[in-house]
């Protein structure tokens, strides 16, 4: 898994990078085919914004969150991303099992 963290009008400190990587471990437990993750953190006046682009096998997911605190924005972002990844995983498993015909078992 490739993780790219960039900052707009913000310097990415090692503590921010470690915090993001620790939060992304939760996402990587749900899916095995996590290819690339790009996180962008930005500051605009008093608004802290966090965005993430996740490239999975068969799907690209984009999520963004804004808060007054950067760590709160990252937490909100990871919660949203977790829901999106679980939704994708559920859809993927439903489609794989839907191919069997009921008459085939008779």
From TrEMBL:
<dbReference type="GO" id="GO:0043024">
    <property type="term" value="F:ribosomal small subunit binding"/>
</dbReference>
<dbReference type="GO" id="GO:0022627">
    <property type="term" value="C:cytosolic small ribosomal subunit"/>
</dbReference>
<dbReference type="GO" id="GO:0045900">
    <property type="term" value="P:negative regulation of translational elongation"/>
</dbReference>
<comment type="similarity">
    <text>Belongs to the HPF/YfiA ribosome-associated protein family. Short HPF subfamily.</text>
</comment>
<dbReference type="InterPro" id="IPR050574">
    <property type="entry name" value="HPF/YfiA_ribosome-assoc"/>
</dbReference>
<dbReference type="InterPro" id="IPR003489">
    <property type="entry name" value="RHF/RaiA"/>
</dbReference>
<protein>
    <recommendedName>
        <fullName>Ribosome hibernation promoting factor</fullName>
    </recommendedName>
</protein>
<keyword id="KW-0810">Translation regulation</keyword>
<comment type="subunit">
    <text>Associates exclusively with 100S ribosomes, which are dimers of 70S ribosomes.</text>
</comment>
<dbReference type="Pfam" id="PF02482">
    <property type="entry name" value="Ribosomal_S30AE"/>
</dbReference>
<dbReference type="InterPro" id="IPR036567">
    <property type="entry name" value="RHF-like"/>
</dbReference>
